[in-house]
Amino acid sequence: MTTIKIHPYRQSAGGWGALRASLESLKHQGILADGTALLLKSNQAEGFDCPGCAWPDPDEHSTFEFCENGVKAVAAEGTSKRVTEAFFAEHTVRALADLSDYALEDQGRLTSPMAYDAATDHYVPISWEDAFARIARHLHALRSPHEALFYTSGRTSNEAAFLYQLFARRFGTNNLPDCSNMCHEPTSLGMPESIGIGKGTVTLEDFEHADTLLLFGHNPGTNHPRMLGTLRAAARRGARILAFNPLRERGLERFVNPQSPAEMLSNHGTEIATHYYQPRIGGDYAVALGIARYILESGHADERFIADHTHGFAEFKAQVMATPWSDIAAESGLRLEDLQEIGAIYDAGRAAIITWGMGITQHKHAVATIQMLMNVLLLKGNIGKPGAGACPVRGHSNVQGDRTMGIWERPPAAFLDRLAAEFHFEPPREDGYDVVGAIAAMEDGRARVFVGMGGNFANASPDTTRAHAALRACELTVHVSTKLNRSHIVHGRDALILPCLGRTEIDIQDGRPQGVTVEDSMSMVHISQGMRAPASPHLKSECAIIAGLAMAMFPNDQIPWRELVADYDRIRDRISRVVEGFSDFNARVHKPRGFHLDLPPRSRRWITATGKANFLAQPLQEVVAGRYRPAVAGRLFNLMTIRSHDQYNTTIYGFEDRYRGVSGVRNVLFMHASDMQEMGLAEGALVDITSHWPDGERAAPGYAVVPYDIPRGCLAGYYPELNVLVPLASHADRANTPTSKSIAVTIKAASHA
Ligand SMILES: Nc1nc2c(c(=O)[nH]1)N[C@H]1C(S)=C(S)[C@@H](COP(=O)(O)OP(=O)(O)OC[C@H]3O[C@@H](n4cnc5c(=O)[nH]c(N)nc54)[C@H](O)[C@@H]3O)O[C@H]1N2
Ligand SMILES: Nc1nc2c(c(=O)[nH]1)N[C@H]1C(S)=C(S)[C@@H](COP(=O)(O)OP(=O)(O)OC[C@H]3O[C@@H](n4cnc5c(=O)[nH]c(N)nc54)[C@H](O)[C@@H]3O)O[C@H]1N2
Ligand SMILES: [Mo]
């Protein structure tokens, strides 16, 4: 038994708590003095894009938008701490393995290229040239280019992403797994089949015209705090805001805007959600189906829109009407009255936006759920008019842009054709491995070299034990990184750490400062200009690292790598001819605030097989039957893995999950009080968690249960620690996104309490 106590957070999200935490993080990184100056450059017309989340910036005012977790992200990159060659000389990799993930990242910024030396078990200094030559040697020695994997995390700029995919395809493979595979892949797969594009259809301005907002499965107070400003404005205008989340999340309930002196002084915030519903984990398909059924029954569907713009309505209607309300309610975890209320509110709305995050995508039936959300929009003509549309809330600040630039293991043929025409080579045509496929390929030797452009593959991936073994089986692992992390410790026989510039830092090529570009969650493309002196003189930009490697790989190549990287305008010129929607890229992006990509659904053009927007649905019983419900001894729970308020994915900033009232620990398991009672567990009791899958059990020992407002039968704990429980083969249908929000587990009192 430990003394973990939950202290319910009665304050609003934001407010003084956010200011205090921001100052703490600047202090912790040793940059309190110049941190503020740095922050003022974030998300400005001439500054850098915040490396936090992908939420867009309001364009009418260019004042600094305060965001606690943006401060933490910028401070983490701007830290005064450094990992030096002396540090690596002092510690064997074995010794480093004993450090926690928090401690690894907290060593500070990487400063020079390092290579693993098996004889001494140390990372030792290596020159950039030798590092490139070593990678080239390994790659050339492969039997096939498909034995190499090129992973990308979503912070990588458009320019670096474009060069990186060009390099991989020039080498001969589409093995470009990325963080998106674990994130919004079901969105990118499901939306095009429905409406012809895998991106959100709204802009920030639409939020000003919407009178109804449906928020599914994301936690803005923590993961995209600037969205709270948008929601606050909508709430003040009287929009109805419906939140769907098994957990009660403070940031969805009440928000004090740190930029509003009146709110700060009175400490009285704005209510965000007008209605808060707590479906059971994975219940959203049924919720959305219920909304559809309500609209169909009410007779208020937009018949004109349906006739002019959609396909498959009759079949869809028959299927929905054949699903009994009692099944819908049972599967959603909500009461019939709630479902009716939701339907009525949506029905009464003039213009509605639906947003969603990981609570929707990290499930077995994620694609079907997203398509059901699209059906709900289509029923009322809520796409292609002001104030209405689909808004997937992306994660990493440039994850959407990376995909636009061709970081995709299943590239469309038209993209490859244009790449071939522009660079005069024949790119590979067969699909590559995604994240799940990459792990399996490393396990059985089909892949032998792993290159990571950012990220932390070892800890972000599902099934930690298998993911680690897979990396260890490689002949070479290479990581282009800013900070030390587990992926450097869990390495291949040969291993390299290549330290790069962060987005906040000045990037000089050929004597001139370069800007990069990014695309936010709403398809705004703009320049990001580093402002700070690099953390070390030995760092290279991601673009320069890729070009350096390419020149070592392909001397005298027809692709002029050296020229391209000497001036990023040249990379953008190439992008303008290869990537659709980017014509005149340089001219457009150098305008303040950049430009918006043209999205066909906004003007009701549907680039689908039918030429229309498609109603697509799966019978509810099929969705239910697809769920894994093993017969086990003891009670089966459904576990979701989520982010605390004090982390950025695998980067743990600290141990304060402020809005959930948890302090100082991360080994907690949120549980309904009645379930605790039924299991005979007192607050703080330690339990061992076991996940179940046909290939066997996986264990996470020593978690302290805390009572929480969560539906019975549901549990929640933190990512990445609980990734050990996610079976590799448990992933979203077709999209292969690990089911990180839905893991079948049992619990029992800890063996060593
Ligand atoms: N500060 C900070 N910002 C971040 C990140 C970070 O780690 N830290 N990560 C970035 C990245 S890569 C991403 S993808 C985003 C992630 O942002 P989110 O999508 O908010 O990610 P999660 O914390 O995983 O939380 C998902 C939410 O879904 C809810 N949920 C879980 N299961 C279900 C379900 O079945 N149905 C419903 N309706 N809800 C459910 C959880 O209770 C939780 O509130 O944030 C980005 N921004
Ligand atoms: N169980 C579970 N697993 C999950 C999730 C979950 O909710 N639950 N979420 C999934 C999601 S949504 C995502 S997006 C993935 C995240 O997966 P990743 O993107 O792979 O992980 P991060 O933790 O964001 O990567 C952090 C590392 O990136 C490096 N880095 C930071 N900035 C830069 C930069 O500018 N350039 C370069 N080259 N490197 C940089 C630093 O070295 C840092 O250690 O995890 C997924 N895994
Ligand atoms: Mo993500």
Describe what is shown at a glance.
By secondary structure, the chain is an alpha/beta fold. It has 33 helices and 32 strands. The chain has four domains: 5-77, no CATH class; 82-180 and 414-590, Rossmann fold (3-Layer(aba) Sandwich); 185-393 and 610-620, Dimethylsulfoxide Reductase, domain 2 (3-Layer(aba) Sandwich); 629-749, Barwin-like endoglucanases (Beta Barrel), CATH 2.40.40.20.
Tell me what the structure shows:
This protein is α/β, with parallel strands linked by helices. It folds into 4 domains: 5-77, no CATH class; 82-180 and 414-590, Rossmann fold, CATH 3.40.50.740; 185-393 and 610-620, Dimethylsulfoxide Reductase, domain 2; 629-749, Barwin-like endoglucanases. The chain is built from 33 helices and 32 strands. The strands form 9 sheets. A 6-stranded mixed sheet has the order 5-4-17-16-15-6, with helices on both faces. A 6-stranded mixed β-barrel has the order 23-31-28-30-29-32. It has a 5-stranded parallel sheet with strand order 11-8-7-13-14, with helices on both faces. Helix 1 (15-28) packs parallel to helix 3, helix 8 (158-171) runs parallel beside helix 28 and helix 9 (185-195) runs parallel beside helix 21 (366-379). The radius of gyration is 25 Å and the shape is globular. The N and C termini lie close together (6 Å). The model has no long low-confidence stretch (mean pLDDT 95). The structure holds ligand MGD (2 copies) and molybdenum atom. The site of one ligand MGD has 32 residues, from helix 11, helix 20, strand 23 and strand 24. Residues 52-53, 69, 183, 216-219, 222-224, 244-247, 249, 279, 281-282, 284, 357-359, 395-396, 640, 642-643, 647-649, 741 line the site of one ligand MGD.
